[in-house]
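ping. complex inputs:
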Amino acid sequence: MNLKTIAIGALALTAISASIATISVAQTQSNSRLDVVKKRGKLICGVNDKLAGFGFLDSNGKYSGFDVDFCKGVAAAVFGDASKVDYVPLTAAARFTAIQSGEVDVVFRNTTYTSSRDGEVGVDFGPIVFYDGQGVMVKSESPAKRITDLDGATICTNQGTTTEQNINDYGRLKKKQFKVVTYSDFDKVMAAFDQGRCDAVTTDSSGLAARRATAAKPEAYRIMSEIISKEPLAPFFAQNDSRWADVVRWTVLSTIYAEEIDLNSRNIDGAKTSGDPVVRRFLGLEGNSGKGFGLTADFAVDVVKAIGNYKEIYDRNLGPKTKLHIPRTLNANYENGGLLYAPPFR
Amino acid sequence: MVTSDPPNNMATRVPFYRDVKILAVIAQMVFVLLVALTIWILGQNLSTNLKTRNLSTSFEFLRRTAGFQIAEGSAFGVPYSSEDSYLKAIAVGLFNTLRVSVLGIVLATILGVVVGVARLSSNWVVNRIALMYVEVFRNTPLLVQLIFWYYAGVLTLPKVKQALEFGGAYLSNQGFFMPWLVQKPDSISFAPVWMLSIILAVATFVILERRCVNLGRNDPAGWIAFGVLLLVLLAGYFTLGQPLELDLPRTTNFGIAGGASLSPEFAALLIGLVVYTASFIAETVRAGIQAVNKGQWEAARAIGMSYSQTLQLIVLPQALRVIIPPLGNQYLNLTKNSSLATAIGFPDMFNVLNTAGNQSGFNLQTMLIALLVYLVLSLTISSFVNLYNRATRLKTR
Amino acid sequence: MVKTKNDPVRWLKENLFSTPWNTVLSIVVVIVVGLFFKNLLEWSFTKARWAVIPANFRLLMVGPYPLEQLWRIWASLIAISLAAGFSWGTSTRERPLARAPFVLLGAIALLALVWQFGNPSGTLVPVACIGLVAGVFIGRAIKTENRVHYYLWTVLFFVCVFLIGFDFGRGGVPSSLWGGLLLTVLLSVVSIVASFPLGVLLAIGRRSKLPVVSGFCIVFIEVVRGVPLIAVLFMAQLFVPFFFPPDFPQLDKVARAIIGMTLFSAAYMAENVRGGLQNVPSGQDEAARAIGLSATQTLFLIVLPQGLRAVIPTIVGQFISLFKDTSLVEIIGLTDLVGIGEAVRNNPDWLGVTREIPITLGVIYFIFTYSMSLAAKNLEQRLKTSN
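pong. complex structure:
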């Protein structure tokens, strides 16, 4: 090999890399995530893998839960096929960067909707899927009856969550000293709690209920009745992508709306003969709201057929027949005194 | 393929494309170009991605209120609360990292030297046990050891209600609490006395040591320096009007308060780091001792020195020259490994930065800070080792 | 230690009770260590709930890898055992066959048969053992060059990675379902292999006479060596996607972990390789230049082969520490051996089982790392004697 070849080789290399550069430099295209998802043929959904009832990975590698069902719903809306989802388990700490970096298309992972997350973290939120509040759980034999009785106690929670800040705010408000110890995931929090490192644990009360229900001895734990914060749980996705936001938003809303108009996975096929214009619009037989989101006119049928209406999703994962048995209260339909209220399909 | 030029061309000037100097310049330019190009591509991608995702690159958030508690530690003596800034929170993390690293380095060195010497002991039981220790702890991941020390070790201590009590100190799985001297409220600060006493003690030690070497005497420099330390402290205590009082730990509704405490997380991390690093240090020490010429041993024993005298006065000082560079590496590793604290919930710098990044959403910035600080720590340690190395190098010629 | 034959009393006297100080030391150490082992044994036979290990054995080995896809793992394992037997047989062709390893293999196969009869491992472990033995005999019978083994293992590497993850018409196994020991081994093997060429390039670059090139390499090496692996892994998780255009196919978590570990490992590899290159006598270089080889030829044909040969044991050592270091991916949320272990330990069905899991994980890691370090020592000896 002589020096001339080296020189020519180097020149060639430069030329090649320059041409690669022109191809691979990112363009600020206004490509919606929807196009990316459609092109890929699969939805990549960020979920929890350790919270029974919401997102849980069993030992056979299957995901299940309330949040997981909504992932399936989005896949059904986009592809008409609820199985076209790849799940990515995310820790509380990694969930926002997973959206920021574009690793996942949407995250359904019991995440609290807050102004700073919406404003500064670089994500946008979808509609609230679960109205929750932060609670505190102690061992049954604990002398504490109210949260303020825990003055001087060690309270554990997981890192990078709103709960970490809420408990701290509550302590400041009530002039109580809580020693807060945090771990990277809630499994570790529970392990430390069981071993007596902490006197109490705190997180969303649905999470506490799930933990208590799946524990070996649920009666060993007591969840205090006080709720110290608002925790509206909502899906989130990358900022400034309104087409993709519409898809996620109306997927969730279609399940709530279906419950309002008494449609469910079993009767929705039969409803096609219905003369009710509200039902007909929802089924995409009149108008074509789905087209506006870049979906099919009858995307809501696919969603409800695949995962059912909100009530079915709730009952399947959190309802009275499950171990968790969380009463619907705030999460009931507005007609039943809850907060669920879907804008009309028209 | 070698292209050999016809000999008659040799006399003429070398064409520019064969001039090694020019070619070197060209090659470097091409390399720089390639690197610059790669960096430019990556940078372009980065900036477009940041723009499309509306992420800020400013470090302004460091001055905002952190809003989260840190379980232990202070910002180098200044107490931290959740109303303080992110910057102060990070300082607490750095303080915790330094605390565990410095203590870890000291203890790991002691344990490592003991095990390393034990590896070469003529006593069969002792050297086999030392060998087993080294093999077990060197060949398993530190993370697994930390999980063991924390969940299967420290947390299996008695619960706080059944805390073991001895002489006013309490041991439980919520920590170790012991009586401690604290500043009385409204009294003159004792901190300057602490500093003065340490400076004087170190100075005494250095001067005495030097005199010993020069005069060939064997004064107990360490003890004298310790005496100086105590004397200054006592004198300061009484002249300032007894500004300190004993703070005794006492049981409360939940756990124990008061006194000085050692958290289970800190204890587990310290044990894990010390035990793991000591197994590596032991091997360096063993290799260092074995590198010392056998004649040195024999000569020392022949002039009537005991085994321990030979080891301390003849062998170890010589072995040190071989030991120091790898030892410095181990110190570096220990400091870097302290970042595994995240796994057991100890708020070291990496853990705090991680929390800060998650709470504020400025993950990129906090990771950059982590890289920079660890880099500075590493460079500091390695430059200290280099300095020491230069000072103790065998002076030949 | 003086070896004395058939005289236990003399041996004891020399090794335990040579001086009064030694006598005291021996007695104290024996008592302390005896108590430790007594408690350990007592605990592990009475209190410990070892049932947690067999109950979760598949999880620990392969994580959430789907049951119906396990044949991929078994196929890779059998292929690897055949190839390992082949290389083993070849390398020991000149020596008589040792009996001990075969007895051990037979015992393992028998145990698997008895213990897990009906389970796939009950039939496939013996098959893998037979493959290994068959490989040994093939290796001893067929004359091969060293080159054949390099090719064989390179091909096998890609085949196995392909087998484990890729689509065969019925859907592949996404990396989010790889776990346990499988993921640990995969991460460490892929990272060390990928870091090798990068490390060699960095080492050559650092030795370069061109200040820009060497400067760049030095900065890269020193920066990476100066920061903890966990920081590199977090950086890879957070930053890597930002450096690709938005329409670029997303790299999953495992791929990003591999990128992080490869960059980290490459910096250490570069230093090891540089050590090897420095030990090549400068006469070699000069001689090569004198017979008319170009600088590039000298480097690739003369210096590198000798330098790399000398650092093989060091590289094995580096692989050992990388193998241990893969455990850190647990912190970024991957389900490697430690990640799965943590999940099992925190499973409410196994409440209160705290020591069993870390101890078992420790033993698994120890078996791998210790046998590799023995192999490295062996290799070092052979390299020394062959020179």
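The beta strands of chain B are 164-166, 169-172, 175-178, 180-183, 244-247, 250-251, 256-257, 260-262.
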